[in-house]
Amino acid sequence: MNLRQQLTQFLTLAYVFSSAFIVWKAVSLVANSHSPIVVVLSGSMEPAFQRGDILFLWNRDARAKVGDVVVYEVKGKSIPIVHRVMREHHNDKKQLLLTKGDNNNVDDLNLYAYKQNYLNQKEDLVGTVKGYLPKLGYVTILISENQYFKFGLLGLLGLSALFSSE
């Protein structure tokens, strides 16, 4: 393979990654969320959502309602949590929410940050679930939890790049 073909492959790959990044940022702007698509990582929301479901989030609603499924992040922890709003308190300036997983026995007080009794709708919420695709996110879970699957997939991609004829 000559230099021109290698450069063409590299530019094509760069185009694919930059296009995906632009689409992600555009969806983030439309949904008003830094992470408009998340994957369910646990069984705490069964039977509503299963492990591996892909959730689509929207963060343009003025207030979350009791019964809404929301995704929130706790200060100091990087993994978003998908749970249902059980109780809400609000005034003109802010809304406070108490959440619980459908498959959990107790509310989420022990998951919140230190000395935090409620979630602040503006600060803690990533978004409200508006749609989902069942089980399609399981590949993400396999990649993050199984190192053999991750390295096998990377190996296949590398071999594919080496032996491609274009």
TrEMBL record:
Entry keyword Hydrolase? yes
Role summary: Catalytic component of the signal peptidase complex (SPC) which catalyzes the cleavage of N-terminal signal sequences from nascent proteins as they are translocated into the lumen of the endoplasmic reticulum. Specifically cleaves N-terminal signal peptides that contain a hydrophobic alpha-helix (h-region) shorter than 18-20 amino acids.
Kindly list the GO molecular function terms attached to this UniProt entry.
Answer: serine-type endopeptidase activity; signal peptidase activity
Q: What is this protein called?
A: Signal peptidase complex catalytic subunit SEC11
The Gene Ontology biological process terms listed for this entry are: signal peptide processing
PROSITE patterns, A to Z = SPASE_I_1 (PS00501)
**Stored NCBIfam families:** sigpep_I_arch
Species the sequence originates in: Scheffersomyces spartinae
Q: Which SUPFAM superfamilies match?
A: LexA/Signal peptidase
Name all Peptidase S24/S26A/S26B/S26C domain ranges. Answer: 22-112
Q: Does the keyword Endoplasmic reticulum apply?
A: yes
Quote the subunit structure annotation. Component of the signal peptidase complex (SPC) composed of a catalytic subunit SEC11 and three accessory subunits SPC1, SPC2 and SPC3. The complex induces a local thinning of the ER membrane which is used to measure the length of the signal peptide (SP) h-region of protein substrates. This ensures the selectivity of the complex towards h-regions shorter than 18-20 amino acids. SPC associates with the translocon complex.
Keyword annotations = Endoplasmic reticulum, Hydrolase, Membrane, Protease, Signal-anchor, Transmembrane, Transmembrane helix
What family classification does the UniProt entry report for this protein? Belongs to the peptidase S26B family.
UniProt xrefs under InterPro entries: LexA/Signal_pep-like_sf, Pept_S26A_signal_pept_1_Ser-AS, Peptidase_S24_S26A/B/C, Peptidase_S26, Peptidase_S26B
Q: Point out the gene that encodes the protein.
A: SEC11
Q: Which reaction does it catalyse?
A: Cleavage of hydrophobic, N-terminal signal or leader sequences from secreted and periplasmic proteins
UniProt topology in membrane? Single-pass type II membrane protein
Where in or outside the cell it occurs: the entry states:
Endoplasmic reticulum membrane
A GO CC term? Answer: signal peptidase complex
EC nos = 3.4.21.89
